[in-house]
Amino acid sequence: MGRKTEDTPEIAASSLKELDAATSLKVAEVFKVLGDMTRIKLLALLSSADMRVSDIAGALGMGQSAISHQLRVLRGARLVKFRKEGKEAWYSLDDDHVVKLMCQALDHVSHG
Amino acid sequence: MGRKTEDTPEIAASSLKELDAATSLKVAEVFKVLGDMTRIKLLALLSSADMRVSDIAGALGMGQSAISHQLRVLRGARLVKFRKEGKEAWYSLDDDHVVKLMCQALDHVSHG
DNA sequence: CTCCTGTATGAGCATTTGTGCAAATGTTTT
DNA sequence: AAAACATTTGCACAAATGCTCATACAGGAG
Question: Which of A35, A53, A55, B50 could form a disulfide with B92 if both were Cys (CB 3.0 to 4.6 A apart)?
Fold first, then answer.
C-alpha cells in the first residue's frame, strides 16, 4: 500500500529539553529560511517538479534576480540542490525533510 | 493530563502543489515565528514544563519584557497558550504540532 | 487607600531582510 | 571574434524584526 509521509520524526520529543545554544541556533536558522512566503511558494513548486530559475520566476511572477537570491538562501540551508545543464540550472528539493516540515506546518494552520 | 492524543492525519505531500497565496502566507508566518533562537529555546523549555514569564526570563537570562514580547508573538501564532492564576501567567505549548515541527527541524540539522 | 509584585504594552533604536537594478560570469550559437 | 542567453552577484534602500527602557495595568498584602 502506498505509504504517506512519515509522521514520526527520528528524534524524540524529549531531546527538546536538552537543546544547547548552538543547536537552537541551527534549528532557528532552518525555520527562518522557511519563514518567507516567496520561499514557501518556491519550495511548493519544487515539490512537484524540478525547475529552472527562469521557470520559477515566471511561475511566481517575480524577477529572476530575486529568485536567484532566494535559491542561494535555500541552498545555504541545504533545502534545495541544483545541477547545471549547459547554461541552465535545474533546482530540486534536497531531501524529504522539507516536505515533511511543510506538511506539518500546513497541518498546524489548517487546524485553526 | 488529557493532552490531545488526537493523532492528526498528516497532510499529504501532494497538497503542496496546490498551495494558494493565502495558505503559503500562513505557512510562512508560522515558520517565521519559529525562526528565532530565543523563541526556539523558549518553546524547548515549555516542552518539558509549564512556566511563568519570570521563570522563562530567568532560565534564558533575558529581560522579562523581551520574553513577554516573544510570548505575544507565540500566542499570535497559536503556538503557546496561557492561563492566568492571580497575577501570574502560566504558559504552555498550545498543541503537539509544535513539538513535531521542532523535532523535524532537529532531524534536518542533525543530518548535516 | 498605598505599596509591591508579575505581566503587558508602547516608543525608540540598531540590525537584519527581501527585492530591484545594474554589472559580472559563464555557456552556446553565429 | 561577437552576440544572445541563463544565471549569479554586489550595491542600495525600504520594510520588518528583536531588544531595552520606561510606563501602564492588574492582583494581593498590609
Answer: B50
Is the Cβ–Cβ distance between B94 and B79 less than 8 Å? Answer: yes
Nearest beta carbon to residue B104 from set A40, A101, A110: A101
Grid coordinates representing A25 are 541556533
Mean pLDDT of A57-85: 97
In chain B, which residue's Cα lies nearest the Cα of A35?
B32
Instruction: Report the distance separating Cα A86 and Cα A79, nearest Å.
Output: 23
Whether B38 CB is under 7 Å from strand D = yes
DSSP string, A74-104: HHHTTSEEEEEETTEEEEEES-THHHHHHHH
Which stretch of DSSP H or E encloses residue B92? strand B88-93
Report yes or no: A16 and B103 within 8 Å, Cβ to Cβ.
Answer: yes
pLDDT at A6: 57
CB contact under 8 A, A40 and B29: no
Q: Is B80 helix (H, G, I), strand (E, B) or coil?
A: strand
CATH for B9-110 is 1.10.10.10
The reported pLDDT for the residue numbered B111 is 82
pTM of this structure: 0.91
Q: Which residues of A touch B39 (CB under 8 A)?
A: 28
How far is B11 from A101, CA to CA, in rounded Å?
11
Q: Please tell me the predicted confidence (pLDDT) of residue B9.
A: 60
